[in-house]
Write the structure tokens for this entry.
Amino acid sequence: MTTWVIVVVCVIAVLGSKQFCESARTRSQSVESRVKGDEGAPVRIMEFMDFQCPACASGALYLKQFMVEHPRAVRLEMKYFPLPMHRHGMESARYAECASRQGKFWLFHDYLVERQTQWKDLIDARPAFMLMARDAAMDTKQLEVCLRDKSIDAVILKDKAEGKKLAVTSTPSYFVNGETAVGKSQLETKLKALLNDSKK
Amino acid sequence: MNLYVLIRFFIGFLFIFSGLEKLLAPYQNFLYVIQSYDVLPDGFETAAALSSPWIELFLGVFLVVGLWTQWVLTGVRVLLAAFIFIVSQAIIRKLPLTECGCFGEFLSLPLPVVVALDSILWVLTVFLSRKIEIVSFMSLDNYFNEKESKSAR
């Protein structure tokens, strides 16, 4: 009898607390420059990533390919979630946000993930980021001014704070039509299931 | 209060904390940790992500209140042995994991430290099992045993 009382009390306490935590998780407005895909797409993905994380690069490349194969299926929104364990996580996000202000976010994002192995182990990755900025035909003088702007950090940290509110702990984390998927494997499973559902 | 009881409480609260942390977050976070260890077949990964935090929580709670203590200690040992195996195989296979994911965002430990800590805990549970009468001080097991022996008189 005592055993069952303890079990039931634990289950009720945990489920109640979980319900409370989930209701506290709210989402903010989208940043248009970091959104791509059809506005009326049935699948809406919010992605939290760190550009230096290899799993994020793998997930981003998969998503890019998926969106090429299913051009009207997905609307993707990217949010910064630089991890402290990654030396260039914050710096790469700064460059990406400056690219966003020049309307070149997705091009620069693709360069960052496609060339990640070339810069992630460098002691100073800024020359590599500058090279990518030139390849993306960004205005480098404007970029240098932008990098000194403190509001850039505020934008990145705001995204990260939002991720933490949504219980993001690892990258990449995705919210596919509001449901959590962590890592490429879970994302693949969710997208395949949604595609199968839409075919029915 | 004796040292054995303190160790019982320590291990119990550690398991409660570890279980609660995973249960209050979306289960996909812990599923991702399990998938990173690449040791279970696909279908079992989700089952493990959903069930193991509950097992951790119940083992912790039962250890703290001291109910079914000997069985619970065996359960804790089995779970610790599984953790040691899973983390060790990740080290041996050189999987790209920098931290264990055992306590979510609250505590990040390198894999070799986790193996060492879990091994120490495993040894401690062996000692606790051998001294079950001393360990049962301040426990429901003790309370029920005393109640039973009083009613038998």
In short: The mean pLDDT of chain B is 90.
